[in-house]
Amino acid sequence: MDPLTLAAFLFVVALGAYVQTVTGFALGLIVMGGITLFDLAPVAYTAVVVSFTALANNILALHRGLHFIDRRALAYTLLGMLPAVYLGVLLLGELHSTSVETLRMILGVVILAGGIMLALRPHPRQHRAGGWVDAGVGVAGGILGGMFAIGGPPLVFHFYRQPLQLAVIRATLLATFAVATAIRLVYVGLEGDIDLPMVQTSLLCLPVVFLATVLGRHYPPPLPDLAMRRFAFGLLGVIGLMLLV
Q1: How many CB atoms lie within 10 A of CB 87?
Q2: The pTM is what?
Q3: C-beta neighbour count of 148 within 10 angstroms
């Protein structure tokens, strides 16, 4: 990767980390969409970098909230998610070698749908969903996580509909993403699809994510929360539509 391309890659990562800090989501969606849209790196390459940076971010965010994890929900969700992650990795490999344009179109649909799902503010249900519902949603998130390292939207939408405390929802989601992302990296590594440049780019992204997170915490944009969320949704919508077009 030449210096100009690397600088653009790191800028997109910083933008995703900053937006996630001030809105609570969208790091993976913005990075995968932006990098693919401007053809800065292949989808498979970007997915590995997103996996490494997201894993570090999840572990850092989770270390003080382990006692909030809903272990039952975590177990059922991972029961459906972990095999589906492997299926997603296989689909990514197949499409990456046979039809890159189809892969980009699927990514565009995922980002557009993800932006819409995250834009909704679902009302909590009166009763907790069954464990097999958690597992079913885990399958959907696992396939997306395996293909693009962005399995969050269906899980976020599902868990925020449950009658649980926000701290429990956040910790359970972070734990789910951390385990699934680590397993994804194991799957991809066993397939021999992680090379030294991917690791080097990931290591360069870590301080960028850290600095962008600090900036987002201390210097958020002078906009109300609703306006910032609309900006994020609009950005995801534009990226998704441009990938489709």
Answers
A1: 15
A2: 0.84
A3: 27
Q: Each residue of 114-130: pLDDT tens digit?
A: 778 767 766 777 888 88
Query: What angle is formed at CA 108 by the lines to CA 107 and CA 111, rounded to 5 degrees?
Result: 85
pLDDT tens-digit series, residues 128-175: 888 889 999 999 999 988 888 888 888 888 888 888 887 888 888 888
143/193 Cα distance (integer angstroms): 18
- The residue extents of the domains of the chain are 3-244
pLDDT for 185 equals 93
Supply the pLDDT for residue 43: 87
The answer on pLDDT for 59 being more than 70 is yes
Measured at the CA of 22, the angle between CA 20 and CA 26, to 5 degrees, comes to 20
Structure tokens at 116: 């819409």
Residue pair 236/31 in contact by the 8 Å Cβ criterion: no
Rounded CA gap, 193 and 176, in Å?
23
Residue 64 has pLDDT above 80, yes or no: no
Per-residue pLDDT averaged across 103-114, rounded?
Answer: 85
Rounded to whole angstroms, the Cα distance separating 29 from 154 reads 13
Taking the C-alpha atoms of residue 148 and residue 188, their distance in angstroms, rounded to an integer, is 12
Q: Integer distance in angstroms from the first to the last C-alpha of the chain?
A: 26
> Within 13 Å, how many C-alpha atoms sit on residue 93's CB side?
14
Integer-rounded Cα Rg, in Å, for the chain is: 17
* Helical spans, DSSP H, in 38-160: 43-62, 71-98, 100-119, 131-148, 152-159
